[in-house]
Design a protein that fits this description.
This is Nucleotidyl transferase. Keywords: Transferase. Pfam families: GMPPB_C, NTP_transferase. Belongs to the transferase hexapeptide repeat family. 18% of the residues lie in helices and 32% in strands. It is an alpha/beta fold. The protein has two domains: 144 residues, Spore Coat Polysaccharide Biosynthesis Protein SpsA, Chain A, CATH 3.90.550.10; 104 residues, Hexapeptide repeat proteins (UDP N-Acetylglucosamine Acyltransferase, domain 1). The strands form five sheets. Strands 8, 9, 11, 13, 15, 16, 18, 19, 21 and 22 form a ten-stranded parallel beta sheet that branches. A five-stranded parallel beta sheet has the order 10-12-14-17-20, with no helix packed on it. The longest helix has 13 residues.
């Protein structure tokens, strides 16, 4: 979660939220947030009827003031409390249960009363998110996490990748230099080439030396893309030099594109 967003809101707490389908939303804590300020206006835990497709991910940033709130709830109930969330075992128990009075429920006792009081705000994620409540879900979440880094692309040997490079699934990189802010789409291939800053290589495109073997001493022994060159989908560029700010929509071989 972005802590800068938490400080910018100036509230007591910020919760990570995500949008889900209306069919599954009632399995979680649903909330309504101000679309401009991101303030939580209404919060309810596992409602019987649909409230909103924005749900609580269970990740929070609080200021130390949260401990005062917990203390107030404790004194109101005249109990010594433990702040807790429902365990996985409890979530899967089908029988009705009553929590002991010594517990404070984070969702119902803390978050719900804070809604609409300019105390609680949201930070919406667009990344993957899943609950882990069964052993099988841990495998699924592990796969989702690793997919952020290993999307079936193969990198190496002899590959240099600079900052802010985006590499799609199925990409193959061999003996190449990829400079800052390059975008390489799915299933593209780059071999024995230098790809300049802010360039883009389309899906199923190939940027390479002839037969994939570069002649490092020859003028056109490798392929070089200048800054902000766009190679469109399925275009093949072999042993060529492309000067900056060019768009290639046809394949070229042993060319210098000025």
């Amino acid at each position: 979660m972005n802590t800068d967003a938490h400080r910018r809101h100036g509230g007591m707490g910020t919760m990570l939220v995500i949008k889900v389908s209306a069919e599954t939303a009632n399995q979680f804590g649903e909330l309504v947030a101000d679309p401009v300020t991101n303030e939580v206006l209404h919060y309810t835990e596992r409602p019987e009827t649909f409230v909103n497709d924005l749900i609580n991910c269970g990740v929070y940033v609080f200021t130390p003031q949260i401990f005062t709130i917990i203390q107030d709830v404790a004194f109101a109930g005249n109990n010594t409390v433990n702040l807790r969330r429902e365990t996985s075992l409890e979530a899967f128990q089908s029988v009705a249960k009553v929590l002991p009075p010594e517990f404070v429920r984070l969702d119902q006792d803390i978050l719900t009363p804070l809604a609409g009081k300019k105390k609680l705000y949201t930070y919406e994620t667009v990344d993957f998110w899943e609950q882990i409540k069964t052993p099988g879900m841990s495998l699924r979440c592990s796969g989702l996490y690793l997919s952020q880094f290993l999307k079936s692309e193969q990198i190496g040997p002899n590959v240099s990748v600079s900052a802010n490079v985006r590499i799609g699934a199925g990409v193959r990189l061999i003996s190449c230099m990829i400079l800052d802010d390059v975008d390489i789409k799915e299933n593209a291939v780059v071999i024995n080439s230098i790809v300049g800053w802010k360039s883009s290589i389309g899906r199923w495109a190939r940027v390479q030396a002839s037969l994939g073997e570069g002649d490092y001493n020859a003028k056109l022994g490798i392929t070089i893309l200048g800054e902000a060159v766009a190679v469109e989908d399925e275009v093949v560029v072999i042993n060529s030099i492309i000067l900056p700010n060019k768009t290639l929509n046809i394949s070229v071989q042993e060319e210098i594109i000025l």
